[in-house]
Amino acid sequence: MKEDIDAVRSHDPAARGDVEVALAYSGLHAVWAHRVAHRMWQVDRLRTPARLLSQAARAATGIEIHPGATIGRRLFIDHGMGVVIGETAEIGDDVMLYHGVTLGGRSLARTKRHPTLRDGVVVGAGAKILGPVEIGEGTAVGANAVVVKDTPAGSIATGVPATYRLRKGPAEDKPLVDPAEYVDPAIWI
User: Fold this and answer.
1) Domains in the chain: boundaries
2) Would you state the CATH architecture of domain 2-167?
3) CB 114, CB 101: distance < 8 Å
4) One GO term of the cellular component aspect (predicted)?
5) What pLDDT, on the 0 to 100 scale, is given for residue 140?
Protein backbone atom coordinates (compact mmCIF):
# COMPACT_ATOMS: atom_id res chain seq x y z
CA MET A 1 0.00 0.00 0.00
CA LYS A 2 2.86 2.37 0.79
CA GLU A 3 4.32 1.75 -2.67
CA ASP A 4 0.97 2.70 -4.24
CA ILE A 5 0.74 5.86 -2.17
CA ASP A 6 4.31 6.80 -3.12
CA ALA A 7 3.45 6.23 -6.79
CA VAL A 8 0.57 8.69 -6.54
CA ARG A 9 2.76 11.26 -4.82
CA SER A 10 5.48 10.91 -7.46
CA HIS A 11 2.99 11.43 -10.32
CA ASP A 12 0.62 14.04 -8.92
CA PRO A 13 1.96 17.40 -7.78
CA ALA A 14 -1.40 18.09 -6.10
CA ALA A 15 -0.91 15.19 -3.66
CA ARG A 16 -0.03 16.82 -0.37
CA GLY A 17 0.36 13.90 2.03
CA ASP A 18 0.01 10.16 2.49
CA VAL A 19 -3.21 10.38 4.49
CA GLU A 20 -4.88 12.60 1.87
CA VAL A 21 -3.82 10.22 -0.89
CA ALA A 22 -5.03 7.12 0.98
CA LEU A 23 -8.41 8.67 1.72
CA ALA A 24 -9.18 10.83 -1.32
CA TYR A 25 -7.75 9.23 -4.49
CA SER A 26 -10.38 7.20 -6.34
CA GLY A 27 -7.81 5.72 -8.72
CA LEU A 28 -5.94 4.28 -5.77
CA HIS A 29 -9.15 2.90 -4.26
CA ALA A 30 -10.04 1.26 -7.58
CA VAL A 31 -6.62 -0.41 -7.82
CA TRP A 32 -6.83 -1.67 -4.24
CA ALA A 33 -10.32 -3.08 -4.82
CA HIS A 34 -9.10 -4.68 -8.04
CA ARG A 35 -6.31 -6.50 -6.25
CA VAL A 36 -8.84 -8.18 -3.95
CA ALA A 37 -11.27 -8.91 -6.81
CA HIS A 38 -8.47 -10.31 -8.99
CA ARG A 39 -7.45 -12.79 -6.29
CA MET A 40 -11.08 -13.83 -5.93
CA TRP A 41 -11.43 -14.17 -9.74
CA GLN A 42 -8.69 -16.79 -9.76
CA VAL A 43 -10.92 -19.12 -7.67
CA ASP A 44 -13.79 -20.42 -9.85
CA ARG A 45 -16.40 -20.40 -7.09
CA LEU A 46 -15.55 -16.77 -6.24
CA ARG A 47 -15.96 -15.31 -9.73
CA THR A 48 -19.46 -13.92 -9.11
CA PRO A 49 -18.44 -12.27 -5.82
CA ALA A 50 -15.37 -10.88 -7.61
CA ARG A 51 -17.62 -9.29 -10.25
CA LEU A 52 -19.87 -7.89 -7.52
CA LEU A 53 -16.87 -6.36 -5.75
CA SER A 54 -15.63 -4.83 -9.02
CA GLN A 55 -19.08 -3.35 -9.66
CA ALA A 56 -19.20 -1.89 -6.14
CA ALA A 57 -15.78 -0.34 -6.73
CA ARG A 58 -17.05 1.03 -10.06
CA ALA A 59 -20.05 2.62 -8.34
CA ALA A 60 -17.81 4.17 -5.70
CA THR A 61 -14.97 5.37 -7.96
CA GLY A 62 -16.29 5.70 -11.52
CA ILE A 63 -13.49 3.35 -12.63
CA GLU A 64 -14.35 -0.07 -14.05
CA ILE A 65 -11.65 -2.72 -13.84
CA HIS A 66 -12.67 -6.27 -14.72
CA PRO A 67 -11.39 -8.66 -12.04
CA GLY A 68 -9.74 -10.77 -14.74
CA ALA A 69 -7.41 -7.94 -15.82
CA THR A 70 -3.74 -8.30 -14.85
CA ILE A 71 -2.24 -5.17 -13.33
CA GLY A 72 1.40 -4.62 -12.38
CA ARG A 73 2.88 -2.53 -9.61
CA ARG A 74 2.42 1.21 -9.09
CA LEU A 75 -0.44 1.81 -11.54
CA PHE A 76 -1.61 5.41 -11.17
CA ILE A 77 -5.03 6.39 -12.47
CA ASP A 78 -5.26 10.18 -12.39
CA HIS A 79 -8.76 11.66 -12.04
CA GLY A 80 -10.06 8.19 -12.93
CA MET A 81 -13.67 8.87 -13.89
CA GLY A 82 -14.70 6.87 -16.93
CA VAL A 83 -11.68 4.55 -17.06
CA VAL A 84 -12.55 1.06 -18.33
CA ILE A 85 -10.10 -1.85 -18.23
CA GLY A 86 -11.27 -5.07 -19.88
CA GLU A 87 -10.99 -8.67 -18.74
CA THR A 88 -7.91 -9.73 -20.71
CA ALA A 89 -6.03 -6.43 -20.41
CA GLU A 90 -2.48 -6.65 -19.09
CA ILE A 91 -0.82 -3.61 -17.53
CA GLY A 92 2.87 -3.49 -16.61
CA ASP A 93 4.59 -1.62 -13.82
CA ASP A 94 4.68 2.18 -13.44
CA VAL A 95 1.83 2.84 -15.88
CA MET A 96 -0.23 6.04 -15.71
CA LEU A 97 -3.77 6.39 -17.06
CA TYR A 98 -5.76 9.62 -17.20
CA HIS A 99 -9.56 9.91 -17.03
CA GLY A 100 -11.74 8.48 -19.76
CA VAL A 101 -9.20 5.86 -20.92
CA THR A 102 -10.60 2.63 -22.36
CA LEU A 103 -8.58 -0.57 -22.66
CA GLY A 104 -11.24 -2.36 -24.63
CA GLY A 105 -11.87 -5.30 -26.89
CA ARG A 106 -12.87 -5.58 -30.55
CA SER A 107 -14.00 -9.19 -30.51
CA LEU A 108 -16.59 -11.34 -28.77
CA ALA A 109 -14.33 -14.41 -28.93
CA ARG A 110 -13.21 -15.93 -25.63
CA THR A 111 -9.56 -15.20 -26.25
CA LYS A 112 -7.04 -12.44 -25.55
CA ARG A 113 -9.05 -9.46 -26.79
CA HIS A 114 -7.81 -6.47 -24.75
CA PRO A 115 -4.54 -4.50 -24.88
CA THR A 116 -1.22 -5.14 -23.22
CA LEU A 117 0.54 -2.05 -21.85
CA ARG A 118 4.21 -2.59 -21.06
CA ASP A 119 6.10 -0.88 -18.23
CA GLY A 120 6.17 2.90 -18.04
CA VAL A 121 3.34 3.60 -20.48
CA VAL A 122 1.37 6.85 -20.11
CA VAL A 123 -2.12 7.06 -21.66
CA GLY A 124 -3.70 10.50 -22.09
CA ALA A 125 -7.25 11.52 -21.24
CA GLY A 126 -9.97 9.98 -23.40
CA ALA A 127 -7.63 7.65 -25.30
CA LYS A 128 -9.02 4.33 -26.49
CA ILE A 129 -6.74 1.32 -26.97
CA LEU A 130 -8.75 -1.42 -28.60
CA GLY A 131 -8.07 -5.06 -29.28
CA PRO A 132 -5.16 -7.36 -28.40
CA VAL A 133 -2.54 -4.75 -29.29
CA GLU A 134 0.74 -4.24 -27.48
CA ILE A 135 1.87 -0.80 -26.36
CA GLY A 136 5.65 -0.89 -25.98
CA GLU A 137 7.59 0.08 -22.88
CA GLY A 138 7.85 3.80 -22.22
CA THR A 139 5.29 4.75 -24.86
CA ALA A 140 3.05 7.81 -24.48
CA VAL A 141 -0.45 7.67 -25.98
CA GLY A 142 -1.91 11.12 -26.63
CA ALA A 143 -5.25 12.36 -25.38
CA ASN A 144 -8.22 11.09 -27.40
CA ALA A 145 -6.04 8.84 -29.57
CA VAL A 146 -7.60 5.62 -30.85
CA VAL A 147 -4.95 2.90 -30.95
CA VAL A 148 -5.73 -0.29 -32.88
CA LYS A 149 -2.21 -1.39 -33.84
CA ASP A 150 0.91 -2.29 -31.86
CA THR A 151 3.33 0.51 -30.97
CA PRO A 152 7.04 -0.06 -30.33
CA ALA A 153 8.86 0.83 -27.12
CA GLY A 154 9.71 4.49 -26.65
CA SER A 155 7.15 5.87 -29.07
CA ILE A 156 4.45 8.53 -29.03
CA ALA A 157 1.05 7.54 -30.47
CA THR A 158 -1.49 10.20 -31.46
CA GLY A 159 -4.50 10.61 -33.73
CA VAL A 160 -7.58 8.73 -34.93
CA PRO A 161 -6.62 6.11 -35.87
CA ALA A 162 -3.34 6.56 -34.00
CA THR A 163 -0.02 6.65 -35.74
CA TYR A 164 3.23 6.61 -33.84
CA ARG A 165 6.68 8.06 -34.02
CA LEU A 166 9.75 7.35 -31.93
CA ARG A 167 10.71 9.86 -29.27
CA LYS A 168 13.27 12.44 -30.39
CA GLY A 169 15.86 11.97 -27.66
CA PRO A 170 16.44 13.46 -24.20
CA ALA A 171 13.96 16.34 -24.52
CA GLU A 172 11.10 13.85 -24.91
CA ASP A 173 12.47 11.24 -22.51
CA LYS A 174 11.95 13.21 -19.31
CA PRO A 175 8.88 12.35 -17.21
CA LEU A 176 5.63 13.83 -18.45
CA VAL A 177 4.93 15.05 -14.94
CA ASP A 178 7.95 16.25 -12.98
CA PRO A 179 6.81 17.41 -9.54
CA ALA A 180 9.83 19.69 -9.21
CA GLU A 181 8.49 21.83 -12.06
CA TYR A 182 5.04 22.29 -10.55
CA VAL A 183 5.31 22.24 -6.78
CA ASP A 184 7.53 23.94 -4.24
CA PRO A 185 9.30 20.95 -2.62
CA ALA A 186 9.00 22.68 0.76
CA ILE A 187 5.25 21.91 0.85
CA TRP A 188 5.77 18.19 0.24
CA ILE A 189 5.47 16.61 3.66
Assistant:
1) 2-167
2) 3 Solenoid (2.160)
3) no
4) cytoplasm
5) 94
